[in-house]
Specification:
Strand order of the largest sheet: 10-7-6-11-12-5-4-1-2-3-13
Largest sheet: 11 strands, mixed
Number of domains: 2
Distance between the termini: 25 Å
Strand content: 15-25%
Oligomer: single chain
CATH class of the largest domain: Alpha Beta
Number of strands: 13
CATH architecture of the largest domain: 3-Layer(aba) Sandwich
Order of helices and strands: EHEHEHEHHEEHEEEHEHEHHEE
Shape: elongated
Mean pLDDT: 85
Low-confidence stretches: 278-284
Structural class: alpha/beta
C-alpha cells in the first residue's frame, strides 16, 4: 500500500480539446505526490509544417517537435500546480507496442489511458489499442471512462476464488492489494464482487450425451456456502468484512457491470490473464468485454509472473524527443 511515485499518461492526440486522462493524473499526483510522464507515439508524420521538409528524417523530426509542443502545452497547467511533468514523443508503431516499450524502460507505478466505446464490428475486425494494452501492458493499467473526480472513489474489486479458466491463484490477492493501494492513495471505500455459475448434475438418457439437471436444493446450498466462505476468507485477509462481499449467480460480464452500476462505482479493479490467441477466441477476456460495458473507470491488474510479449526494441528505428521540468 505504498504511494504511487510515477504515473505515465498515454496521449493518443496531443491536440484534442478534452484530456480526461491528464486531468485525472493531475488529481492523483496532487493527492500522492507522484510525478507524471505524458507519452505520445505516432507512426505517420502528419501534419507537416509549411514548407515541408524535403527529407524523411527532416519530416519525422518536424512532426516530433510539433507534437512535443502540443504535449508541453498540456503540461504547463500541471507544472503551475507544482507537479513534476516530463513530455516524451516517439516515432514508433504499433501504438500499443510503443507504449509498452516505454513502460519497460521507465517502470512506472501506473499507466493511465483514456478509453472510448467500441462497436462489436470494431472488436472483431480492428486491432484496438485498448484491448492490446489489456493483453500486453506490464504494469497496472487505469482506463479512464468517466469525468468523475478520483478523490474518495467507490471501488469495486472483482475476484474469482474458483480460478475459472486456470486463472493464477494469487491474482485475487493481488487485485485486493491494488484496491488497497488505490484506497491508500485516493481514499474511498471498497466492495468485493464475485459472479458464480451454479453446477449441474449429469443424468443418463437415450441420447449420446447425458443431459444436465440442476443440483438438489441441499447440494446447491452447500455449494453456495462454500463459495461464500472462500470469498469472505479472501476479503478478511485484506481487512475487509463479509458485509463488503457481493455474490451473484450469472455471467461475470453481466453480473459485474450490474453491480458496478448499482453501487455507483467509480473504479472497477479486476485481473486480466494473457492467453494463447486460439484459446482467447473461445474464452475471451472478461476485462476486454467489460471495458465497453461499464461506465466507470477500470484498473486492470496482471499476475506477478506476467511477461509481456512486446519486445523492448522496435523492429523499426525508434526516434524520440522529450522535455521535462521538475519542481
Amino acid at each position: 500500500m505504498t504511494a504511487w511515485k510515477h504515473l505515465v499518461v498515454a496521449i493518443a492526440n496531443p491536440f484534442a480539446g478534452r484530456q480526461m486522462a491528464i486531468r485525472k493524473a493531475s488529481e492523483m499526483a496532487a493527492l500522492c505526490g507522484a510525478r507524471i510522464t505524458l507519452f505520445h507515439a505516432f507512426s505517420m508524420p502528419y501534419p507537416l509544417p509549411d514548407p515541408a521538409p524535403k527529407s524523411t528524417t527532416g519530416a519525422l523530426q518536424a512532426a516530433m517537435e510539433y507534437r512535443l509542443k502540443g504535449l508541453e502545452k498540456l503540461a504547463r497547467p500541471l507544472r503551475k500546480k507544482g507537479v513534476a511533468v516530463e513530455c516524451v514523443v516517439e516515432w514508433d508503431f504499433p501504438a500499443h507496442e510503443a507504449i509498452v516499450r516505454h513502460l519497460l524502460r521507465s517502470k512506472p507505478d501506473l499507466l493511465i489511458a483514456e478509453s472510448h466505446r467500441h462497436g462489436t464490428i470494431g472488436r472483431w475486425l480492428l486491432a484496438n489499442t485498448d484491448w492490446e494494452l489489456i493483453r500486453a501492458c506490464p504494469c497496472p493499467l487505469w482506463f479512464v471512462k468517466s469525468r468523475h473526480s478520483v478523490e474518495n472513489p467507490a471501488i469495486l474489486a472483482a475476484v474469482d476464488p474458483l480460478h475459472a479458466h486456470a486463472k493464477p491463484s494469487k491474482l485475487d490477492d493481488l487485485i485486493l492489494d491494488h484496491a488497497a493501494t488505490l484506497l491508500a492513495n485516493l481514499g474511498g471505500a471498497i466492495n468485493v464482487v464475485h459472479a458464480y455459475t451454479a453446477p449441474l448434475s449429469s443424468a443418463s438418457s437415450n441420447y449420446v450425451e447425458p443431459f444436465r439437471i440442476p443440483l438438489s436444493q441441499d447440494r446447491t446450498q452447500r455449494f453456495l456456502s462454500g463459495i461464500r466462505s472462500q470469498v469472505e476468507q479472501l476479503a478478511r485477509r485484506h481487512g475487509l468484512s463479509a458485509s463488503q462481499c457481493i455474490l451473484k449467480e450469472g455471467d461475470p460480464v453481466t453480473v459485474i457491470s450490474a453491480v458496478a452500476e448499482k453501487k455507483s462505482t467509480d473504479v472497477l479493479v479486476m485481473g486480466a490473464v494473457s492467453r494463447h490467441e486460439l484459446k482467447r477466441i473461445f474464452i475471451g477476456s472478461t476485462a476486454e468485454k467489460l471495458i465497453d460495458k461499464v461506465r466507470c473507470d477500470l484498473l486492470i491488474i496482471k499476475p506477478d509472473l506476467f511477461r509481456t510479449a512486446v519486445r523492448k526494441q522496435s523492429a523499426s528505428t525508434r526516434l524520440h524527443l522529450k522535455e521535462s521540468t521538475r519542481t
